[in-house]
Structure formats: structure tokens, C-alpha cells
Amino acid sequence: MTLTLYFAAGSCTLPALVGLEEAGAAYEAVRLVLSDGDQRRPEYLAVNPRGRVPALVVDGVVITENAAVLTTLAHLFPAARLLPQGDPVQVGRAHELLAWFASSVHVSFAQVGRPERYTRDAGAWPALKVGGRENMLAAYAEIEARLADGRPWLLGDAFSLADPYALVFHRWAQRLDVDMAGFPAYSAHAARLQARPSVQRALAQESSPRTLAAA
Fold it and tell me: Global pTM?
């Protein structure tokens, strides 16, 4: 099996990198620099015409969208237990988190950073940014409440790929000028993740040289 992950530093691709590292998978990592427009280059649009990351290529077949990529990794490497198995309720709770992160939390952040995705009316952008920030604060509060009982991971005692996905949003707080000291359980969760070897290896990949050739 050949695996290639197209990713970008500081983006929502972190949990896919963590999943591959958790599984001990052999894979090629192709780093895009979004600020330079790598996602719009013809060579990447040939992989993912939407021009978004992540994109996972499995034996020549392209899979996009974070929830789909993470689910695919969990099925490819069942021994790594990247997502719950067996218990339908835990499986459902895991996918509930992945869906919420992808369809709501990430969208709220994009309202702040990329309001043009939602309307061409530049006059509406300030309101979109304000609403997005408010929604992000509500999401931080919800994650904080979930972790406030002292559980080590979002689903309880077992690590899952929902955890590094939550780390993405914790890292993005700096861009929103949000002081995460107000979310101590969430910040402790982030610290546990950053101490995990697979996360450290994934973060090291983020600082690797660009691997999609610049035009």
C-alpha cells in the first residue's frame, strides 16, 4: 500500500499527520505553503480540484475532507485504534466530534479569516468576523466543559483522532487573540497532546522544507 498525504503547516491537516504517525505508517508527506498559493497550483488541483487540504492518496485513489481522511486512516490501521471500534455509541460520539469540528468549528474560524468564502459583499465581512469569533469562543467553552471532569481525552480514557483535531483549534486561538488561560482543562489537554511522541513527530513534519515544487 502506498500513502501520500498533502498537508499544510498550522492547518487542520495536523490530525491526519498524527494518525499516520500513531499507526507507524510508511507514507510520503507533501507540504503545501498556503500563503504562497500552493493549493491553487495546477499540480495540486490535479489531486484535489477543490484546492483544500488535507488530501490523502491511497494506492492512487484520492480522499479529501478531514472527517473522511481520518476515518479512512482508522480503517486502514485498526490495530492503532485511531477511532473507537465495536461500541456503536462510542463510534457515534467520535464521528459526532469529527463532524462538529469540520462543519461548525472550522467554519466559524473561517468566518474570521476568510469571510469572502461566505459572501462577496465586503460590507458584510465585519459582521461575519464578529459572529465567527463569538462562535469560536462558544466552541472553546464547549470543549472545556467536556474536559472539565478530568478525563484525559475527549472520549474518556482512550486517545482518538478527535484529540489532535481539537488541538488545531487550540493553536488557532492565537490568531483570534484569545487567551486560552481561561480554558484550563482544554489547555491541559493540549499540553498532553504536545507531549505525545506522535504529535511531536507530526509537528516536526510541519517545519520540514516545502515538498510541493514552487512554480
Answer: 0.95
Pick the CATH number of 88-196 from 1.20.1050.10, 3.90.420.10, 3.40.50.970, 1.10.10.10: 1.20.1050.10
Per-residue pLDDT of the chain in tens (215 residues, 90 and over written 9): 999 999 999 999 999 999 999 999 999 999 999 999 999 999 999 999 999 999 999 999 999 999 999 999 999 999 999 999 999 999 999 999 999 999 999 999 999 988 898 989 999 999 999 999 999 999 999 999 999 999 999 999 999 999 999 999 999 999 999 999 999 999 999 999 999 999 999 999 988 877 876 54
Q: Which residues are CB-neighbours of 56 under 8 A, at least 6 positions away?
A: 3, 4, 5, 6, 16, 62, 63, 64, 69, 72, 73
